[in-house]
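for the writeup, i need someone to sanity check this before i put it in the appendix. the sequnce is what the collaborator sent (i think, or maybe the updated version? ugh). structure was predicted straight from it, no edits. if anything looks off just tell me and ill rerun, i have time this weekend
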Amino acid sequence: MPLRIETFSNVTGGSSFFKAVGHPLAAPKAAILIARLASFGPVAVYDPLGLLSGLAEFYDLSSIDIGGIYVQDVEQVGREVFGHVARPVTDLPSSGARTVFIVAFDSQRLEGHIAHLIPKQAGVVSLDAMRVPEDMLNDPGHYLSKFNWATNFAWFRDGNGHHTRVVSANYWPRYGAKGTRLWACLFDGEGRPIADWTEPMPPTDGTVVIDSRQVRERFNLSDFCGSLFLHVIGAAGHDVVKYALDTYGDDDTVLSCTHDANAWPADLYAGLPAPREGERVTLWIQNSHPTPIPAGAVGLNLMGSADIRRLDQAVPAFATVELDVAGLFPEARWPQQFEVQAGKHFVRPRYEIVAADGRRRMAHANVERTDLKPDPKLPQLTGGAMDKGVVGKGHILPAPLLPMGRWRTILLPTPMSTAQTELPVKAVVYDRNGVEIAEHHFGNLKRSDSVALDVTGLVADKSVVDGWGHVELVYDFEAGTIADGWLHALVRYEDVTTGHVAETSFGSHMFNMAMVYRDEPQSYHGRPPGLSTRLFLRLGTDPWDTLCHLVYPASTRWHATSDTSLILVRRDGVEVARKRLAIPCGGSRFWRYHEMFSEAERLAAGEHAYVLIRDTTCRLFGYHGCLAAGDSAFSLDHMFGF
């Protein structure tokens, strides 16, 4: 069964309640609270904010002798709440309760409202008994403030020659945060906490690095593969903990990357690829809550199929389970793709693909929207070109065409909304200067269609693109008119020399236009339009090099070239060097760290430096990756901004 909790709304943003009651430090206190309530019944439950049902999704309340449920809202009177008919709180004096349980944080004011109604013999308890330590709160007077709950999960492994590294920056002080700290808790595969620590964050814009080898050594741990829970204390401006996640090995052929997990568990995820012959595709399920996932609650189905096959295994609280998709669908093969029935039990999951030669790569599925409907205005507003229609090209999904002498680029459209019964799309290839050189019409794809396009194969003359370019997936309203703006794809990159593979998936946006349509062009912070760039490029540690591919997509005609700064930042947030790029509108730029910055500049930057990509004239879309020594392996994923 899916959890009946509110995690995220595309109107109001993320919910803080589920984070507050499901926090690793709240769960032990919840057990004490429930035991107390079970010992001092009957209990009158006062639920003024409608939070009781959500609480019951996380914790077993069956041991409590509930004498009645009481509400404040007149319209809630008579409704069934947690198996009881809700009564008006004015009936509380006749409840005969030994305990009144106020289902709310910051309960003093609510208790004051009903002080005259509480039976004389009754004690009062509330969710305040589950509060995390006060020094972890940015806004103690408003416990459910989103800035008290800047949290996220990272998939974290160390063992058998495989390691992980989380890299981010302390971007919160630029929004007014002071004295930020990081609390981290590492859970093993069984969901047991095996290490936790608090440390100060670096200075403003300084680098945050958590390496699994160092954590293992610091806490004298054996092999582990589980979840790293991150809580940034004192956050402001952003309640999202963004990071890059590198997976690497003792062997130089083990290298991959992905990024943050998206902190709000969803009902559905999509974009999980089926294996090729000889491959193994693993979905990593990280239970994000302090309650077990029941057997059968998680499942997979091929996109567009009603045949859902379930995981017949319970997943303990905060545990991590490896699901081999072939165990449920032995017949499925690339380019087929799966829909993940997640039931809000876990954050956006990673998947890992192990090839026949042992090389492996990580990527993530994406949140599948359940609240969208087709937008009949999009075909009327979109002209298919920069200078046609109110929104020009409209929604653009830009992806690198990596230097074709080394890499093969494959694109797979992925339905990412339950409303997408059909998908009219085309792929357009551009050279580095933004000149169109090839086009492919997919037609009007059905939901069950999985059609992978060899983008490199579209370009007959590889010299035309001077080594690199980019591809845009856009709506093709000549093929169909059903569209909702939630256009996604998976893009796979194959090294034709080594056979190493990387892949990434993401969604479309409207880019670089003066008009605003709904929430586009999206902004990193604040209201649209988002017409500037602030991207975080983490740098690989020696002897790795770092690659970056910046795309300048434009829905309508914009500035002729970008005015892009590449700012090399030391781990303490101090700028070391700065380079300038002028990327043509509609074009792209591929570059490598060791070629862009001199050896002296790299030495001055030191270990754990990063590059801030800044442009106040346009919105760029970026991709980053690492290159192992001798170019034996590479990684690639899209970048994050803040």
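The chain has three domains: 8-134, 150-364, 376-638. Residues 376-638 form one domain.
thx in advance!!
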